[in-house]
Amino acid sequence: MKNLLLFTDGSVHAQLKIGFGAYLLVTDAALPIEVLKSKVTTKRFDQTSSTKLEIQTLLWAINAIPPTNQPIIIYTDSQNIIGLPARRKRLEANNYRNAKNKLLRNTELYQAFYQLLDRLHFELVKVKGHLPTKEKDGTARLFSLVDTAARRALREALGT
Fold this sequence. Notes:
By secondary structure, the protein is of the alpha/beta class. The protein has a single domain (4-83, 121-158), classed as 2-Layer Sandwich (Nucleotidyltransferase, domain 5). The chain has 5 helices and 5 strands. It has a 5-stranded mixed sheet. A hairpin with a 4-residue loop joins strand 1 and strand 2. Helix 2 (50-64) packs parallel to helix 4.
């Protein structure tokens, strides 16, 4: 059974707290890059931060995938997302609270992430973002499609 490849990224304007997430679901990596580029989807998120936007985008993208039994491999440049599976035991043991007993900022998003992880058992792969073109392999080229789309959508929304 072929893997589904999901690429996600986001671009945020920290002062305005708006951002755009982008994802690309690849069922056939052999498709021409122009065809894949046309399949990138973007969405605006308000009252967000860079950390929050990355997980919001991932959750939105996963929930957009039609039900499937295919294994899903998710590519992201977000160290926060990559680290979530390893942080799960501690977060749950502390009821998503910090050392001062305050609820963590993105608790609901983390809980939604873990629910999806339990249900879909996806694999996370860290991608180096913003590489020079000559250093990009096939995966990095596909990732750059979502990176570029998110940044373009934000620039267009800001009129810059």
